[in-house]
């Protein structure tokens, strides 16, 4: 029969929170890079449009048509950027990642207190339940369901950290000895 100790459950929950933190951090970074690139692209397009417009004023002819076409393309690009509104998604993922980091730190503190035998079993269970509730409340308020959020959920739910991977996020004193199982 499969058995899971309370500490194992806390370590698994900690691993899931760390995974969600990494996912939201990655999504925020990816969206921020895309947003910056889109802004630079629109700015470059507007610069070219301005230069062609100057040519249209000075020479007329084909520059006038090119200026009008580039203006329409620049407007469409800016409108698409505004419609997509990546900034709110970036801030949503950053905020969620920051709040998840705080929960990760609370899990580390709980594991440290368990390691130092500062808590009895009911207190450990109560703290674990409070952390699970806090994480659940956070996920209710997480960014809206977009592609990046879907990828985070898919990655997080599809990935279970091993003890060695969880140990990467813990201080040396809280890591499990190599080959140890509970």
Structure described in brief:
The chain is mainly alpha-helical and 182 residues long. It is built from six helices and no strands. The protein has one domain.
Q: Keywords, please?
A:
182 residues; mainly alpha
Task: Describe the fold and architecture.
The protein is mostly helical and 182 residues long. The protein has one domain. Helix content is 79%, strand content 0%. The protein is built from 6 helices and no strands. It has helices at residues 6-59, 62-84, 86-115, 121-140, 147-158, 163-167. Helix 1 (6-59) runs antiparallel to helix 2, helix 1 packs parallel to helix 4 and helix 3 packs antiparallel against helix 4 (121-140). The longest helix has 54 residues, at 6-59. The radius of gyration is 25 Å and the shape is rod-shaped.
